Amino acid sequence: MNHLKVDRDKDGFLDQPLTKQVNAMNVWHITVPNKLEGEIGWRALYENRLGGQKGFNYDDDFGKSTLYGVGIENKMFEVYTKTGTINPAKPYRSIALLTLSRLHLQDNYYGNKTYLGDQRSFNANTIYQTIIHDTRHYIRSGLSFRYNHYSEKYNSVGTYTNEIIPGAYAEYSFNNDLNWAVVAGLRADIHNTYGFFLTPRLHIKYNIDQLTAIRLSAGKGWRTARVYAENTSVFTSSRALFIDDLKAEEAWNTGINFTKKMQWFGHDASFNADYYYTWFKNQVVIDMENIHQLRFYNLDGKSFSHYLQSELNIEPISNLLLRFGYKYNLVKQTFSGELKSKPFTPRDKALMNAEYKIKKGKYSIDATLKYTGKGRIPGGGININGYELKSNSESFMTLNCKQPGEPNMQIFI
User: Fold this and answer.
1) How far apart are CA 380 and CA 343, in angstroms?
2) Computed from CA positions of residues 240, 242, 248, 251, in that sequence, does the dihedral angle turn out positive or negative?
3) Alpha-carbon torsion 375, 378, 379, 385, what sign?
4) Which letter does DSSP use for residue 385 in this model?
5) Beta bridge partners of 90
6) What does 116-135 look like in DSSP terms, one character per residue?
7) What fold, for 1-212?
């Protein structure tokens, strides 16, 4: 919880929202010896966040043009079950059923704008697992069912959506316990509105030696976008809102990972590198290029990302752990026929972390330096009443440090 109103930069707005959060959960385990194992659990969440101007009071200021406030209230309740058979004679063979039921309510306001969201969902998956010839070859298959009901109201405009998505899948895995592991999967779904989707996936791992591994992956994914619930931050502006009749998003992804463990300075060290390329067949574009408008429409053109990340972990002296990381993220989308960098997405990020453990690891002194590069500002470069809107945000660094018994301290550089 956070009840402290902080405005260190003296701009009249809270640096961090006031927050109340309550979580509760419980789990029961069920066992029928040598026949069945099961689990049933529930989880409840209540969260309330209040931001905006420091002097804002809901009872006095909501619905007026005096002070600006933002309120986000979340209520969520989930119930899940897991049930699986046990076969002592054939431990590699099993049948399982997984279910999840969810109720999620949102009650938000952004100044004088309001949003009410109601999601009711039920998901069920069956899993059948067995081997082909020996335990190097596993196959899993099953049926799935998803139901989602969405009721949303933004200001005075209400929308209602029902999704019914039956599906089926199959997955083959091979592992020789030496150097090769392969997982290949294929699933098919039928959406009651958007039709048939076929999504393949392939993962390959090869151990060059005991300390070195390379992984390859490729596949396709799809999803339906919930514009209001997923983009709450953009509704705080005064822009006029336009939403087209949106289709489901589809994308392909390929990637490679390299991992190396070694001994440096007489201690364990590791190096990890990832590269992923994603391109969209269809995407919901959030267009803020016109500073007076906020538009959501389907992609008409190219959209892709190149993602590269590397990380090095070393221990130069006993109890001193150092981590170095770099991330390169080139993301481009087509906005109204023009290919541009995705707004507010820095191309470069870097991190350096140092941790020193004392008293046999019971305590530690920790410091993290982060670098965030420039990001494109949508609509930048124009002149408004003598003020030129910048085309890119400035790069900056943040320093987080912590010593035993002290709270985190953050410094912007």
Assistant:
1) 10
2) negative
3) negative
4) T
5) none
6) EEEEEEEEEEEEEEEEESEE
7) Maltoporin; Chain A (2.40.170)
